[in-house]
Design a protein that fits this description.
Blueprint: H1 7-19, H2 25-34, H3 62-68, H4 71-92, H5 98-104, H6 106-109, H7 111-119, H8 127-140, H9 145-159, H10 170-186, H11 194-203, E1 208-213, H12 220-233, E2 238-243, H13 250-264, E3 276-279, H14 287-301, E4 305-310, H15 318-331, E5 335-341, H16 346-362, E6 373-377, H17 387-396, E7 400-404, E8 412-413, H18 417-426
Parallel strand pairs: 1-4, 1-5, 2-3, 2-4, 5-6, 6-7
Antiparallel strand pairs: 7-8
Bound molecules: guanosine-5'-diphosphate.
Length: 427
């Protein structure tokens, strides 16, 4: 496989290899590279016997062209030299690090390895190094105005003085750190595990109570119904408490949902148990009182979960926020879920912050009950506004428990932090 003029070098290496088990790859390379580079054989001009006819108009015959072409010979020689070098290196460095050997030998291979050397760095990062990429990232995440600066600053502090890894660039290091921080924000330490908590409540012979709150039209009732469906699919019986006694049609909307859900999971599929029921007392009544009655009813009936729908209210509406704080204080639900739509981006963040503040302001309790988790709806309708998810969890520290991704009962997901961060970084 190598040209005959390499036979001597190859023999020499083979002999060395068979005599000395520990011949190093470097020595092997030196053997090859120290051996004289083959020179293309000179084609001796044979003196023509007698007089040859002259060739005019630069015409060269095929046979003459072949003898005059040295290029293929030289190229194949060099290729074979490299093949031998590579094979011998691999052979001798099974135990050693092949790559290290190559790097040690880079001086010899000059240009080719200087490229590798350029990528290997041991530089400590300074704030100045990161300034331009951090500015770019701040601009990129500018719609998360409240947090993008803080986030970038914390990444800079974290990375300052860090030694750049092999093959890393400042830009890739900063981006990776930012990406990790975003994922960390979206995965708060406190996880809400509803199924586990419902089972705990079952052991205590009481229903697990979830209250839903948020402004009008964000998808409270629809996503309450989706969560109901998910619970029933997990074989838990549910009582829906119609505590939106304010908006016309709110009770009927829930009635329709409970009928449909009951039809999807009829009692005969669940050992005769009625899996979904509605607790309704019409309009204009005290919502906190209806919720309390519903919870007591569920306890008596041995139902597993109570889902409390509440009237939509603007975060600035004092009296209505007071009524919600009362409902929560009186009933002490296990979970208070804030329903916000991803569609409105930062507006949803504002709603959530003000809901929390109002609940704290209007609570009579020493330690007010605030929002425990978030349901982010209409996720299917957004493209670049996924940042609302990050802002909401960053600002409140509360997890996104569910993501609504459509209008059917199946369109409910857990938050995929990595997918959101991926979308954020490329948006
Ligand atoms: P509520 O006033 O907060 O109870 O809101 P509704 O539950 O009545 O929902 C308002 C509208 O939003 C309805 O048309 C729902 O079908 C729609 N909706 C709710 N959740 C989602 C979702 O995740 N994706 C989409 N595309 N639409 C949704």
């Amino acid at each position: 496989m190598w040209p005959t003029h390499w036979a001597a070098e190859v023999d020499c290496i083979n002999a060395a290899l068979s005599n000395r088990q520990n011949i190093s790859s470097i020595e092997c390379c030196v053997l090859i590279f120290n051996s004289k580079s083959p020179k293309p054989k000179k084609i001796k001009d044979k003196k023509p016997k007698g007089k040859e006819p002259r060739t005019w108009k630069f015409q060269v015959s095929a046979a003459e062209a072949k003898t005059l072409d040295y290029s293929s010979q030289i190229i194949s020689t060099n290729n074979n030299a490299f093949v031998i070098l590579y094979q011998k290196l691999r052979l001798q460095t099974q135990k050693n690090n092949f790559f290290n050997s190559i790097l040690l030998f880079r001086g010899r291979l000059g240009g080719m390895f200087s490229m590798l050397r350029g990528l290997v760095s041991s530089k400590s990062l300074t704030r100045e190094d990161m300034e331009s990429i951090l500015e770019k990232m701040k601009d990129h995440l500018n719609w998360m105005s409240q947090i993008s600066s803080q986030l970038c600053d914390s990444v800079a502090v974290k990375l300052e003085g860090k030694v750049l890894g092999t093959f890393s660039t400042v830009s890739s290091t900063v981006k990776q750190a930012l990406q990790d921080s975003l994922v960390q924000i979206l995965q708060p330490k406190r996880r809400v595990d509803i199924l586990r908590d419902v089972m705990e409540a079952q052991k205590q012979c009481r229903p697990f109570v979830i209250t839903f709150c948020g402004v009008n039209g964000v998808g409270k009732s629809t996503n309450l119904a989706k969560i109901c469906f998910w619970l029933v699919e997990n074989d838990f019986s549910v009582l829906v408490a119609a505590c939106d006694t304010f908006r016309a049609g709110a009770v009927e909307q829930l009635r329709t949902h409970t009928r449909r859900l009951s039809a999807l999971h009829p009692p005969d599929q669940h050992g005769g148990r009625n899996m979904v029921q509605l607790y309704e007392r019409g309009y204009g009544k005290d919502a906190a009182g209806i919720a309390l009655e519903a919870i007591n009813f569920a306890r008596e009936q041995g139902l597993d979960v109570v889902l409390v729908d509440t009237a939509g209210r603007m975060q600035d509406n004092g009296p209505l926020m007071g009524a919600l704080a009362k409902l929560i204080a009186v009933n002490m639900p296990d979970l208070v879920l804030f329903v916000g739509e991803a569609l409105v981006g930062n507006e949803a963040v504002d709603q959530l912050v003000k809901f929390n503040k109002s609940l704290a302001d209007h609570s009579q309790l020493q330690k007010p009950r605030l929002i425990d988790g978030i349901v982010l709806t209409k996720f299917d309708t957004i493209d670049d506004k996924v940042g609302a998810a990050v802002s909401m969890t960053y600002i409140t520290g509360q997890p996104i428990v569910f993501v609504g991704t459509g209008q059917t009962y199946h369109d409910l997901r857990n938050l995929n932090a990595r997918a959101i961060v991926h979308a954020l970084m490329k948006a």
